[in-house]
Amino acid sequence: MSALLTVEDLRVRFPTRTGVIEAVRGVSFTLGRERLGIVGESGSGKSQTGRAIMGLTPLQAQVTAKRLAFDGIDLVSAPAKVRRDLRGKRIAMILQDPKYSLNPVMSIGRQIVETLRRHEKVSRGEARQRALDMLAAVQIRDPARVFDLYPHEVSGGMGQRAMIAMMLIAGPELLIADEPTSALDVTVQLEVLSILDKLVTERGMGLIFVSHDLRLVSSFCDRVLVMYAGKIVEEIAASDLPNAKHPYTRGLLNCMPVIGADRHPLPVLDRKPEWAL
Q1: Could you give the number of structural domains in the chain?
Q2: Residue 203 main-chain phi, psi, to 5 deg
Q3: Per-residue confidence band for 168, with pLDDT thresholds at 50, 70 and 90
Q4: Ramachandran angles phi, psi of 244, nearest 5°
Q5: Does residue 212 form part of some domain?
Q6: 3-state SS of 92-122?
Q7: DSSP state, 267?
Q8: Which helix (H) or strand (E) holds 46?
Q9: Please, is 211 exposed, middle or buried when counting C-beta atoms within 10 Å of its C-beta (0-12, 13-18, 19+)?
Q10: Within a domain: residue 254?
């Protein structure tokens, strides 16, 4: 099976007054039509990797790669118009918190319709119906009512589902989900994961699932990349995560609570300077 996405030696740097910050340092991986998890602590470069693939890094950032290709399209040298046409249509990204990702002065339905009509020539009536169908597909009850609501009028879980609907309305082939369940309670988390799992299976999408929750990733993804200080320190099958070899991955696993175990206080991750080399 050919790779949908190829990333080779991806680097993201941010020049500052005190020097250059290297947020992503030589990340390489391929993605087929599968669920790939990227885990690590805050600041490890997970989100910046996803944003670089999308072309959503800030203007001052320096993004380089030996190869960054989606379905044969070179994303590094692609003109801005090509990137805009890909974004939302063939590659989509679910951001972390709907409170900050949805436009507060536009109704939810209008935002979904706007996304669809940006990429497809459809009438307003057809766009509205497809938006309602997509809201129903992400298990929102009474889509017609939610269509006319504003983001502040819905719960966090419903806002996240609306964000997923907006990202999926144009039928992307690659979906990057940046901690899509971190702002949700456990019950809603499972529902959102079930929606994503169903969509990946039925549509044959490639999914990059960014998270800091190793337990969640091990049960949901097919493969896992573990990032530390902007680099990938380990790649492992999700089912084999408990048998990880790298001391950083072992440390992350060891820090998680174990039901029935008497561990007080919980172990603290002892970071080694050589992990960042």
Answers
A1: 2
A2: -95, -15
A3: confident
A4: -55, 145
A5: yes
A6: EEECCCHHHHCCCCCCHHHHHHHHHHHHCCC
A7: P
A8: helix 46-54
A9: buried
A10: yes
User: Are 182 and 260 in a shared domain?
Assistant: yes
Q: 115 with 93: CB under 8 angstroms?
A: no
Same structural domain for residues 262 and 165?
no
Report whether pLDDT(1) > 60. no
**Domain range holding 248?**
5-90+174-276
For the chain, the distance separating the N- and C-terminal CA atoms, rounded to the nearest angstrom, is: 33
Same domain, 188 and 218: yes
In-domain check, residue 79: yes
Determine if residue 236 is left, alpha or beta; phi over 0 gives left, psi from -120 to 50 gives alpha, anything else beta: beta
Regarding beta strands 223-228 and 35-39, do their DSSP bridges make them parallel or antiparallel, or are they unpaired?
parallel
Q: How many of the other CB atoms lie within 10 Å of CB of 180?
A: 28
Using CA atoms of 270, 253, 194, 204 in order, give the dihedral in degrees to the nearest 10. 80
Q: CA angle at residue 253 from 240 to 24, to 5 degrees?
A: 85
Of 129, 147, 171, the residue that ends a domain is 171
| Residue 180 pLDDT exceeds 60 | yes
What residues have CB less than 8 Å from 63, skipping those under 6 apart?
Answer: 10, 11, 12, 52, 57, 76
Which tens digits make up the pLDDT trace of 25-64?
Answer: 999 999 998 999 999 988 899 999 999 999 999 989 999 9
Query: Residue 249: which residues within 8 A CB-CB, separation 6 or more?
Result: 226, 233, 234, 236, 241
pLDDT at 172 over 80: yes
Please report whether residue 27 resides in a domain. Answer: yes
